[in-house]
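Q: Structure tokens for this one, please.
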Amino acid sequence: MLKHFFAFAIGLSLLVPQPSVAGAQRPAPTKEQIQQYLKTQADKLHPQHGKITLKDGLITLNLPEDFGYLTPDETEILLHNIWGNPSGSHTDGAIVPTKVSITSRESWGIILNYMDDGYVKDDDAEKIDYNDLLSKMKEQSQKQNEKRHDAGYPPLNLVGWAEEPHYDKASHKLYWARELETPGAPHELNYDIRALGRNGVLVMSIVAGMDQLPMVQKNKDKILSFVEFNPAHRYADFDPSVDKVAAYGMAAMILGFAAAKVGLFKGLFLALLAFKKFVILGALAVVAFFKKLFARK
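A: Here is the predicted structure, written as tokens:
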């Protein structure tokens, strides 16, 4: 994600020449041009408050005034046009704090995706070896970096747990956090929440900086209260005689086997870090993003 790189990127972009259509060199976009562009994109976002129904009445969001819901189209603007991630993400929207400028360093968001893979059994939640799981995730991360390199992105490395996975059996919500690192950039945070329902799982992916972990942890209970499955769609409503059971369990959900189904970024990245990790771009990628952006203009 670009949000922690704007100041650095602006400084670098002023040093990078940009070819014109005729092949001549011209200056990279100025700080003012970049700021104006970001403001124009931010003005396209209209966060909604209060009670919001998703997925044809399956899920209800209850958002206070200091948080707002962005539609899937607005979320694409946020992820691609403002935060500089690959285009073509497929989400069910996002929740963003409304008292923080979406283009500022302090911005963060909760990206939403619903996976209708069926009822996920939680009977293995207490048996998972999280250290072994972390080792497997790091292996996946290294394999993923090969694809990132081929796609022109810097490596994205999994440092470790920022918060070890925990399952709240009463609310049927699973959460964990990962610390991520890319060369030359501040460490970033992926804080994952999975809300289990009768016929699927709502993926809530909090994208922020590592320095925002205390803020996320402080607001975790509030965030968990934002989302509820509606009656007849709750986890407790599962009917084994008619309902489908998911082909994966809790460990596989953390590991990311189910993530590819969400389909963010047109399959550019592997399951690990893909369905939420609106990837952290390195400084060179930031410059390239703005160069390409203003070249199109």
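A few notes: The chain is about 30% helix and 25% strand. The chain has one domain: 48-279.
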